[in-house]
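Changelog entry: the Transmembrane protein record was regenerated in this release. Current contents:
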Amino acid sequence: MSYFLQSIDQFGVQQKLQIPPIKPTQKSAFGGLVTLILYGVSLGYFLSQFYEWQQNNKLPKITFLQEQIQDGQKLLIEGVFTEISYLKTLNNPIDPFNPQSLIFQPILEIVPQNRSNIQSIPLILDQEKLDNGKIITKFLIKNIELSNSPTNLPIRKIINYQLSLGYCNPNQLQEGQQCANQDTVDQFFKQANFFQVTIFIQQFDPRTKKLIYIPKFFIFDMIKDQLYTNQFILKVGELSMDDGFLFPNSNKYTYLSDLQVISAQYDQVYSKNIYGKELISILFFNLDQIKIVNMVEYPKISEILADTGSIISWILSISFIVSKYNENLSIEKTQREIITMYYNDFIDFQIQKNWLGKIQRVHCKGKEYDLQKSQEILNRLDQIAIEKMNYLNLQNEVAKLQLILQEHIGLQQIKKYLESKFSLESLFDKLGIPEKISQQQEINQIHAQQELQQEVDQQLNIEGEIDSKFNKDIVEQEVEQRMGLLDMKTHENLQFREQNSNLQIQESLQQNNNYLTVINVDKTDEIK
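Regenerated structure tokens:
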């Protein structure tokens, strides 16, 4: 079981030989400065891209298609769909839609496919005051639902709307309305007359993620004894919007995306034969057989991170220069340390180089050496140091040392050294084992309060401390000689540490001897 768990461990750490062990990675102040700059630029770029994404400034992916409508395709228009009014830019004194002097009365009807059950819908009357103080009367069409089906179906579900504009009929007046007299009608036809139709379509705004209303204006003639028919073919728009943060989040909308107008002109004879009354204009609204399908997909956080990551990777590629710089520093530092192992005064040499690494000056302790000859020697030292750093070269030197030892010491003696075993227990035994004092002995020592016995105990404790300190120093020296003999730092400081340790032991022995001498003198005086 333990072997299986070890085999599937995904967090194993590679064992590395660290050189030097305290700082296994070569770093520099220049590398730290470049790191701050690069990571600062990367973070700033990411924050700017994230802000642009949150503000919907990132263009979404939009797919535009045209498809045939489905069976029973519906279009529900909420709010104001159409406004009918007299042309606002005309300065004519007579408004044919003035409810107090109404000349033309618009009538809205729902027309099914068989035209057998036509229903009338009352229009909403509204008035608008212009900047010049003129009041314009408007008829509003609101909250309608149209329907259509493909032409190849045997049974079609169709709901259309028709707005007929005929002369005022007193029997169809609403409350507060009054028909105009004949003189007003005659004066009206003496002026140039146009009426305005405003239809509100909808378009998708990718910044606000909402459907906005866009008005489209149409202007038609109002001529006596003439009938103008205008067929408005409305195009359905279907929108599928995906604005999920990480996972898809689809929202679907149906709206009026566009329209077409087909116009025709007839006389009043045609109007009376077909519609049974005199009409000036007819507006017919129906759905088109083609609908527009829009699929909008906004960038998700994964795409922003991927785009930002690619740019940041390109920015961080500049770090190759810093890595190369740190690599050169590491190689030069190791070369100096290797050369110092063989020539310990190499640290006293001051070698000046230019930014290309070429030696410009060599001097040591106030002496300046020939540049060309010094450069040849230093280059050779660097070359040898590089060869020393090769792992195969290290194995080669170890193999040669083994051969030398076999030649001078002998194979049997080497095997004897290798088979030798040293006990750590004997090393700790030199430190001494403190004696355990029983409880009865402690009671006897408490009751025995003789000064002579106390002085003897004190003298014995001092001698024990001297022996313990002496044994501790000996044990430390033995550890250093056995395990740290060939260590670089131990080899450099070994002589100093041995001298310092010997001096400390001598001083400690001298102080203790002086102290014991004083105690013995005091004791002799008391006996006397």
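The first helix runs from residue 2 to 7.
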